[in-house]
Write a structure and sequence with these properties.
By secondary structure, this protein is of the alpha/beta class. About 45% of the residues lie in helices and about 15% in strands. The chain is globular. Uridine-diphosphate-N-acetylglucosamine binds next to helix 1, helix 5 and helix 12.
Length: about 375
């Protein structure tokens, strides 16, 4: 008979690969009744449903259907809808939030105000850049959550520096690698490069969606221009996020990019085919957080188009480097010349994070 009900909150694409291994692990525990709550922050079939299917996740127990909006609308919408569930239909014993999206901070606030313990998975990451909406979500969530599960020592240090007491911090490692290991054979069998007409080992993968890169016309124009030139050196598969597609169209850049030789624009790709693409790529060009980690795990050069990263271990130990748009080409040439440094896998990025999290939660719930 389960003694603890746990809500696991899923909201947006980068959450799903963090939620899935933990969901599967908690499902096996007799003391735990785990329920999946989808806030609906991401709702397109290829941003949500397909990834749920790939990761073996069932339909959510609760779907809040909040959708897009301004930051306040989205955060407020999630809070209102999730509070109703906790008050009226299903008050859990614990709430687990993951990552740094608006729904993460929203559900953490709902839980702590109702005196329901909240655990944050992927706690302690800091870019130090408060212009980034995710940084605000990280600060808010870590300030109020009862239990902070961190992926790496730098995250522990950030929390200590902010005065978080030791008993709230537990290092569990990086759960993204659990998803990769769970799906490894399916990823290996997917053969996504062929489906996109590229040869394993001879193409780059591109993703871009940060407001700082795509919402400003001059910046996006520069990036589009660099990508066109880069595609003349090595074929690029660019999985275009809905936000980015909208901006490219709005700024009149889309048609030109679609015609550029060597550059293939595709819709967002689900987890298994995407990891199949990444694992055979020569390099990745991105502003994603997760891809910085996955490329470090796979020892693939990652050119991150950002001024800072909340994942510095991917630079100090891995294959990730921060690159200015104007230097993109010269960095690609470095990769093609075989001059990109190799990295190593950080400690506890081993596919066993979910096990450690289950053990931690079991202790904390007294089961
Ligand atoms: C959100 C997260 C970001 C994460 C990213 C991954 C926050 C603050 N940001 O950013 O941390 O890296 O998800 O994708 O939580 N849209 C669709 N279909 C969808 C989802 C969005 O068309 O399924 C469009 C909407 O028009 C929306 C825009 O994309 O306005 C941006 O979506 P939103 O959820 O606001 O933020 P993301 O940029 O996806």
């Amino acid at each position: 008979m389960p003694t603890s009900t746990v809500h696991l909150i899923a909201a947006a694409r980068p959450n799903f690969m963090k939620v899935a291994p933990l969901y599967h692990a908690l499902k096996k525990e007799p003391w735990c009744q785990v329920k999946l709550v989808h806030t609906g922050q991401h709702y397109d079939p290829n941003m949500s449903d397909a990834i749920f299917r790939d990761l073996g996740l069932p339909d959510p127990d609760f779907h809040l259907g909040v959708g897009s909006g301004s930051h306040a609308e989205q955060t407020g919408g999630v809070m209102i809808a999730y509070e109703k569930i906790c008050l009226n239909s299903d008050r859990p014993d614990w709430i687990i939030v993951v990552g740094d999206v608006n729904s993460t901070a929203a559900c953490a606030m709902v839980g702590t105000k109702l005196l329901i313990p909240v655990a944050h998975l992927e706690a302690g990451l800091r870019s130090g850049d408060r212009r980034m909406p995710e940084e605000i979500n990280r600060l808010v969530t870590d300030a109020i959550a009862d239990l902070l599960w961190t992926p790496s020592p730098d995250a522990d240090e950030n929390l200590r520096r902010e005065g978080v007491p030791e008993f709230r911090i537990e290092r569990v490692g990086n759960i993204m690698m659990d998803s990769y290991e769970l799906m490894r054979s399916q990823i290996a069998a997917a053969n996504a490069p062929a489906a996109h007409g590229v040869t394993p080992g001879n193409y780059g993968v591109v993703t871009l969606h940060r407001p700082s890169n795509v919402d400003d016309k001059a910046t996006l124009n520069l990036l589009a221009d660099q990508l066109k030139q880069a595609a003349a050196k090595i074929p690029l598969v660019f999985a275009v996020h809905p936000r980015t597609r909208k901006r490219l169209a709005e700024f009149g850049l889309l048609a030109d990019l679609e015609r550029a030789p060597g550059l293939k624009l595709v819709e967002p790709v689900s987890y298994i085919p995407f990891m199949s693409l990444v694992s055979s790529a020569k390099l990745a060009i991105t502003d994603s957080g997760g891809l910085q980690e996955e490329t470090t795990y796979l020892d693939i050069p990652c050119l991150t188009l950002r001024e800072n990263t909340e994942r510095p271990i991917t630079v100090s130990e891995g294959t990730n480097r921060l690159v200015e748009p104007k230097n993109l080409l010269e960095n690609i040439e470095k990769v093609l010349a075989g001059k990109w440094p190799h990295g190593r896998r950080p400690e506890q990025w081993d596919g066993k994070a979910a096990q450690r999290i289950v053990a931690s939660l079991r202790r904390r719930t007294g089961n």
